[in-house]
Amino acid sequence: MYVMQDEAGAIALMIVSLWCLGSWPALFNLLERKGRIPMHTYLDYTFANYGVAVLFAFTLGDIGPDTPEAPNFLTQLFQENGPSVAFALAGGLALCLGNISLQYSLAFVGISLTEVVSASVAVVLGTTVNYFLDDGLNRASILFPGVLCFLVAVVLGSFCHASNVADIQAKLKAADASAQTLEDNGSSFKNSEASAPLLINHPSNLETHSKYCADPETGGSAATGAEYFESLESHRAIKVKGKSVLFGLGIAFFTGLCCAAFSPLFNLATNDQFHLLKPDVPHLVVYTTFFYFSTAFLICSVLVNVYFLYHPVLGIPKSSLSMYCQDREGRHIAVIAGLLCGIGNGFQFMGGQAAGYAAADAVQALPLVGTLWGIVLFREYHGSSGKTYSLLIAMLFMFATAVVMLVASSMPRDGSRT
After folding, report:
1. CA distance 139 to 6
2. Distance between CA atoms of 248 and 250, rounded to whole angstroms?
3. Is 415 contained in some domain?
4. 364/147 Cα distance (integer angstroms)
5. Widest pairwise Cα distance in the chain
6. 5 three-class SS
7. Residues 37, 130: one domain?
8. 3-state class (DSSP) for residue 411
9. d(Cα 149, Cα 62) in Å, to the nearest integer?
């Protein structure tokens, strides 16, 4: 069994994990906007994610010496470690429910705000619990100021989102007013092909056209801002028009609670802080815990998503197992998302076992990566005001500071076996 005991190596794993875990929700959001049924995406993602856990177990978890203190993966499958297995299974269930709710929150409030709310709840609660479970393993003088930075980032993120919503509403009103003026003058883009090129390229209309008529995803100029959002609503899988933003925020908060629970449960499974195992039974190694954790994730995901195939919500089209098997459009993207999540989780757990799970919760700074994807891939802040950009930069800075501080609080776990 491969054992990660080097603090520098653990920090490197956390950084890679941060990028992986911050990237896969962007792929979910992309597929949902293109109209792929979320249950199809989630099932593909689940099977790929489980494949990573199995690979970790039979490679890193089953190489090297097999000792009584640190048994290999196959050896542990036949040991009496029921209480630890129960914690691992509970952690997998928590993460599965959190990730299922996350994909719906992405549709309602976007990737940036979803990850700000859910990750911040996860960090504040999960990091605090992990700190006490690890008996103060991390440097509290650095750890908790880092948690405070997350809270500041949350406040900045909420102001940033509110400012961006106001910018979007202003852009849509300006687009509608511009379209009405063109109609009144008999020069509508739709009704006058000859005059359209002149209007678009006229200096007085060029800025308005580039700001309000560009497709936020493609950069094209086929529709006004209002028409783009109508088009997005008609093509996307989850219908959000007329739904309350507070409903989406509530889903994001529930996601955060689930994500706050899975890391401490994984910690309890690997370190047995409650001393539930018999004295002669070794703790679960991180790879065995990851395997049980992912098995519960798989079972929960299949049950919930198969149910939603036949009983969809939020305007999602009804589907079936046969339709899922035939739906290959975007499957490779969903599989990549599952691989990223599996690798990210595995590296987070390996880093947490080596340097403390409270420090490893730095990888929950998903908004740092997710917001970058929101800017680059979805252009969520396209054409926003200077105020919005200032708040966005401040939010990203606070998240980056929080990540650095949480990682800096890490300390090697004495006598780490896994």
Report:
1. 17
2. 5
3. no
4. 11
5. 87
6. coil
7. yes
8. coil
9. 39
Three-state DSSP state, 1: coil
Tokens of 133: 């479970």
* Terminal alpha carbon distance of the chain: 8
Give the domain range for residue 360. Answer: 7-164+244-408
Please indicate, yes or no, whether residues 31 and 54 belong to a single structural domain of this protein: yes
Could you read off the pLDDT tens digit of each residue along the chain, which spans 418 residues?
A: 787 777 778 878 888 988 898 888 889 888 988 889 999 999 999 999 999 999 999 999 988 778 877 889 999 998 999 999 999 999 999 999 999 998 888 878 777 678 777 877 887 888 888 888 877 767 888 888 988 887 888 778 778 877 887 887 777 777 667 666 766 665 544 454 444 333 333 333 333 333 333 444 444 433 445 565 566 666 777 776 666 678 888 898 999 899 889 989 999 999 999 999 998 899 999 999 999 999 999 999 999 999 999 999 877 889 999 999 999 999 999 999 999 999 999 998 998 877 677 666 666 666 677 777 777 776 777 778 889 889 989 988 888 888 788 778 876 665 444 4
Domain boundary among 235, 255, 289: 235
Q: Which two tokens stand for residue 345?
A: 């989780």
Please tell me the distance from the alpha carbon of residue 120 to that of residue 148, in angstroms, as a whole number.
10
> For the chain, what is the radius of gyration of the CA atoms?
24
Is residue 366 within 8 A of residue 204, CB to CB? The reply is: no
- The three-class DSSP label of residue 206 is helix
Residue 115 lies in a domain: yes
Q: Report residue 247 as tokens.
A: 């409903």
Whether residues 124 and 225 share a domain: the answer is no
Considering the domain architecture, whether residues 215 and 342 belong to the same structural domain is answered as no
Distance CA 87, CA 277 (A): 12
Boundary-marking domain end, from 212, 235, 258? 235
